[in-house]
Amino acid sequence: MGKTYSPEDIKEAHKATIYHEKDILNSSVCTCFYCGYQFDPHNEKEEIEWWDEESPKGKTIVCPMCLIDCVIGDASGFPVTDHDFIMACTEAWFGGISRISDGKPVERANRPTIIVD
Ligand SMILES: [Zn+2]
């Protein structure tokens, strides 16, 4: 039987998906709660994008696969690799509309091509 998580846990976890640069850099595993991608942020430095560069609270990491800002690292203290936790969060945040809810495999999204002229 899976664990259950309270709505408060889920809400707190959502806060850990933004302005969390320090947590991410202290984590050895991060999970994207939209597409399910798990990665070590130290192995993907080249691929990783950050948003909120100007925020005094810290930058926000963007998932290298789906480009959505819904990533939590294990340094946040949340069980980021626990399947039940991942399901509870993705259901709560995306209303059952995510690649995880759909059971789709992790897949790299196409980056928009930026044309500089
Ligand atoms: Zn993702």
Could you characterize what this model shows?
This protein has helices at 7-15, 21-25, 83-94, 99-102, and strands at residues 30-32, 38-39, 49-51, 60-62, 71-73. The chain is built from four helices and five strands. It has one domain (7-98). Helices cover 26% and strands 12% of the residues. It is globular, with a radius of gyration of 14 Å. It is of the alpha+beta class. Bound molecules: zinc ion. Zinc ion binds next to loops. Zinc ion (ZN) is lined by residues 32, 34-35, 37, 63, 65-66, 68.
Stretches where pLDDT is under 50 for at least 5 consecutive residues are none
**How many separate helices?**
4
Taking the sheet with the most strands, its summary is: 3 strands, antiparallel
What's the count of strands? 5
List cofactors, ions and other ligands. Answer: zinc ion
Our count of domains comes out at 1
**Bulk shape:** globular
Strand order, sheet with most strands: 2-1-5
Structural class: alpha+beta
Mean pLDDT: 92
Secondary-structure element pattern, one letter each: HHEEEEEHH
